[in-house]
Predict the structure.
Amino acid sequence: MICHLCKSNVHKVHKVVKKVKIYECLDCLLDFVDQVVSFKSRSDKDDTNGLYNFAAYKIKEKKLRKTFAKLTDIIVKYKKSGRVLDVGAGYGLFSSILHKKGNFLIETIEPNTDLYYLQNIPHTNNKKTLEDYLKWTNQRDRAILSKHDRSKRYDIIILMDLIEHLRNPMQSLKKLRELLTYDGILVIQTPNYMSLMARICRDWAWWMIEDHKFFFTVKSLQKILNKTRFKTEYFLTYEDWYDFKKNLDGNFAGIKNNYLRKLTKGIFFIFFAPFYYMFRQVIWGLGYGGLMFVIAKKK
């Protein structure tokens, strides 16, 4: 198979999840699946961490609000107003928090879920996939979209946990670049498969071959931004301790004796938790956080 990013044919099978092979490009460190095989592996019973279950999402709401508040604080350092396009907005929580921190006009692309958190906020939703939206936008604006027509462009385009789902992320980023104002920003968050979490957790939650077609590292994410003519303004890796701990719990699932499993987990966390809290800023700074958060501008 050919790497979608650097076109190299030098790769290996990095991991097998539910009988689906995940290939790793040895040149740019992009991981990817055979999309046809991955699609055929889907089951109606597959659960993607409650991501598309509103009841499960509500349970996580307090934690998500805290995280999103920190991330939106970073965004408003670069843009305090303008048109926002939130791609794959989910239930609209991220955009609702951003909206409160500036003078923003919110537009979303969300084909699957109701925008619960935006119901009292003026917004426009495009109930399409990103691929369909980009085709429609190209046809609609081909004659009128120009470098000087800001009314047809966005000041912020947000891809929160979205780029890994796209069939052709490089092509999508190129087209999204055309929809940004000259000083607009692109915001991306995506899992980091070379994170400490991914390395030490037996069943890393983001090996979601049902939904994820690509898996990025710091190197491969920077490379795709560079190839699509973006320059990085801000780069952060981080993760939530609750998510880290939940992933680590899977390491002890093989211990059948309930008492022994609890004892082993307890001993492990007594030593690991202090180490993690002491060094996590260093770990994140070295690029080993579980999530990558990027703000980029046009070159």
Residues 41-50 have pLDDT under 50 and may be disordered. The longest strand covers residues 180-191. Residues 99 and 106 are 7 Å apart (CA to CA). The chain has nine helices and eleven strands.
